[in-house]
């Protein structure tokens, strides 16, 4: 009788093991498919600007192209080169995230100074579109974060706010403290995102309008990277948008004090 019971138990265990192996192998296949799909998409994204660049360079080299046409085509080549450079920069960032190469080195930073320094970096690009960027921050909020990672994250979000807004509009970069949460809010008056697209914008390579994004130099990776970077800080990033009116991105971070003995740095 005991022997029978043992066999039954063993059969159960073997059955469970077989199920676990099947699940693992399905997961592995899904991952492989996702990786292949990502690679196929990326090679498409890399090829497209190169096709434009080669095509327009060929036209320019023909003898009957007018000076005006040449200027126009050179502008397109420059734009496409910028897109390609951004895409490659994002791919490198993503690879670094995927390989855990972003070591998080936290320090105490004054939030307002962090926001001001990022604003300073993007201001020339905002000026070019005649857009204003306002920094509003509660007095003296210290945050314990990796400054480089936050710079990168905020640059990606502000870059979107600029890219997807019309000339002359404004963007607000806010820093707030709410009980035990630090919040960074980026509000734009841009084109907004259709409701049905909002759930997907943090996915890799997702772009709402591929042709328009091309024109603005989007890679579809900026928000995916931002999400990974904030997760390195156990934080959260969410987005609200009203199509045609504007977008608000909210970054939330648990308030964390520097370990005793570490120095407080001013921004
Ligand atoms: P991209 O590099 O294309 O901007 P992101 O991952 O940063 O890629 O954003 C994904 C998509 O979400 C963009 O292609 C764009 O359609 C939309 N999006 C992101 N931020 C904004 C914004 N502030 N206003 C309007 N649309 C936005």
Summed up:
54% of the residues lie in helices and 18% in strands.
**N-to-C span:** 74 Å
Please outline the major beta sheet. Answer: 5 strands, mixed
Work out the number of β strands: 7
> Total number of helical segments?
6
Based on CA inertia axes, which overall geometry fits?
flat
Order of secondary-structure elements: HHEHEEHEEHHEE
**Share in helix:** 40-55%
What is the C-alpha radius of gyration, as a whole number of Å?
A: 24 Å
Mean pLDDT: 89
Residues in β-strands, percent: 15-25%
Bound molecules: adenosine-5'-diphosphate
Instruction: State the low-pLDDT regions, or none.
Output: none
Keywords:
267 residues; alpha+beta; two-stranded antiparallel sheet; 7 strands; flat; binds adenosine-5'-diphosphate
Structural description of this entry:
The protein is of the alpha+beta class. The protein is 54% helix and 18% strand. The strands form 2 sheets. A 5-stranded mixed beta sheet has the order 2-4-5-7-6. The chain is flat. The model has no long low-confidence stretch (mean pLDDT 89). The structure holds adenosine-5'-diphosphate. Adenosine-5'-diphosphate binds next to helix 4 and helix 6.
């Amino acid at each position: 009788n005991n022997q029978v019971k043992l066999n039954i138990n063993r059969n159960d265990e073997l059955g469970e093991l077989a199920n676990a192996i099947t699940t693992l192998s399905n997961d592995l296949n899904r991952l492989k498919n996702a990786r292949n799909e990502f690679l196929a998409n990326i090679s498409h994204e890399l090829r497209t600007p190169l096709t434009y660049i080669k095509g327009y360079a060929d036209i320019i080299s023909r003898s009957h192209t007018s000076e005006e046409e040449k200027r126009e085509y050179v502008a397109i080549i420059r734009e496409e080169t910028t897109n390609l450079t951004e895409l490659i920069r994002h791919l490198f960032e993503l690879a670094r995230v995927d390989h855990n190469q972003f070591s998080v080195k936290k320090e105490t930073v004054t939030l307002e100074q962090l926001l001001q320094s990022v604003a300073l970096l993007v201001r020339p690009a905002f000026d070019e579109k005649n857009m204003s960027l306002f920094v509003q921050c509660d007095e003296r909020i210290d945050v314990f974060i990796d400054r480089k990672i936050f710079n990168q994250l905020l640059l990606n979000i502000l870059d979107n706010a600029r890219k997807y807004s019309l000339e002359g509009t404004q963007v607000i970069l806010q820093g707030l403290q709410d009980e035990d949460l630090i919040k960074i809010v980026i509000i734009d008056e841009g084109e907004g995102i259709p409701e049905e697209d909002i759930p997907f914008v943090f996915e890799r390579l997702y772009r709402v309008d591929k042709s328009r994004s091309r024109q603005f130099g989007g890679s579809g990776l900026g928000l995916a990277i931002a999400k990974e970077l904030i997760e390195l800080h156990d934080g959260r990033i969410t987005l609200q948008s009203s199509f045609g009116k504007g977008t608000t991105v909210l970054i939330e971070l648990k308030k964390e004090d520097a370990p005793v003995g570490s120095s407080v740095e001013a921004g």
